[in-house]
Amino acid sequence: QGVSAWGVTILRVEDRNERPVVLSANLSVASLQDTGTSVGAPLRVSDPDAGDRVTLSIVSGNRNSAFRLSGSSVGQLLVANQSALVRDEVFVLGVMATDAAGLSSTASVTVSVTHVNRAPTMRDSTLSVQENSGVGAVVGLLSASDAESGSVLTFAIDSVLPDDGAAGSGP
Asked: What are phi and psi of 64, to 5 degrees?
């Protein structure tokens, strides 16, 4: 006849710490954005271990400290150095997510800088001309500047004010 035996087996499942995951992203930002401007949506970060604190950091590709992360665990990329955002440039940032136990993962976050044409600047000027001056007489010099390199500026007279400053009145 068969012999049998029985016993109690205890199986204990222990939780292992898994790496956090930061997802790769493709973002864009307009050139010359103000410091503190958000760049796209917050980066997506997850950790299979519920309640584990994840810290984010930029570990590579951040030329001239162009970007920073809002806090260490939020994941919002911000402009940190406005002058580093040159038009039509691409940054490939290495972003690392690290959990409390030191496990980490890194993802590439690509930021494309798009060109924004900004209006030129010019100071107001008051010029005068001698009565009966000939056609083509130089009245004065105007000066304007444009952040766009190689731009050609043109000037136009929108309106003329008579001596008393009242627009539309005249002789």
From this structure: 55, 30
